[in-house]
Write a structure and sequence with these properties.
Alpha-Beta Plaits; about 50% helix; about 15% strand; globular
């Protein structure tokens, strides 16, 4: 993959005005996510709040974006996120804070998240959008994620809790024990919460990104 191709993520919290505790809750989530994702080498810089309920970062590699998206969605509950991803070059030396950097990838990420907010992508609600110089890639991955997001919007809080616990301890019996449920209930919650579809989407789109930008 070209060394000058980066992936910038810009995310914001949906319906944040309805929550009085949004700043404190978002801050705690971002500190935890930054520590975890830096340790896992998923991101280059800690998440930084840019304005209000919006935050951003740079992925350690573009192909890691799908894994980041899935982890953000599960760990930020009960907060729901819109996530725009821009692929391209970055003008500056990559160093914190991320909100002082600029370039094509940042501009593309802004265009992506603005497209979600304006409902200009599709005639139905989506939560995720990619923008890059490769139009064919944009059309393909945005269609995949539009279908993916249709499932995400149907997942209940109980199902998200099961998904989070299973990802933390990816063994059915261990997850069931921690949730104080039987294994069949955990398995059912994972299926009804579309966990396997979400996982396969992350794998397939990571491969698509590698193929498109290698």
């Amino acid at each position: 993959m070209p060394s000058n191709t980066y992936a910038v993520l810009i995310a914001d919290v949906m319906k944040s005005s309805t929550r009085t505790d949004i700043r404190g809750l978002l801050g705690k989530r971002l500190v935890a996510a930054s520590r975890r994702h830096l340790r896992q080498k998923l991101i280059k810089l800690p998440y930084s709040i840019t304005a209000g309920d919006e935050f951003q970062t740079i992925a350690a590699a573009p192909s890691l974006v799908p894994a980041i998206i899935l982890d953000l969605r599960r760990t930020f509950r009960p907060l729901s996120l819109r996530i725009g991803i821009g692929l391209g070059h970055i003008n500056d030396r990559i160093q914190p804070p991320v909100n002082r950097l600029g370039g094509e990838a940042f501009q593309a990420a802004r265009k992506a998240i603005d497209g979600i907010k304006s409902h200009s992508l599709f005639k139905f609600e989506v939560l995720t959008s990619f923008e890059s110089p490769n139009e064919h890639f944009n059309e393909t991955i945005n269609l995949i994620y539009s279908l993916h997001d249709t499932l995400v919007l149907k997942i209940t809080e109980k199902q998200w809790k099961t998904i989070e616990e299973f990802q933390n301890t990816p063994a059915l019996e261990r997850a069931a024990k921690r949730l104080k449920l039987d294994s069949s209930t955990v398995s059912r919650n994972l299926k009804r919460g579309y966990y396997w579809q979400l996982s396969e989407t992350a794998k397939a789109t990571a491969s698509l990104i590698k193929q498109s930008f290698s």
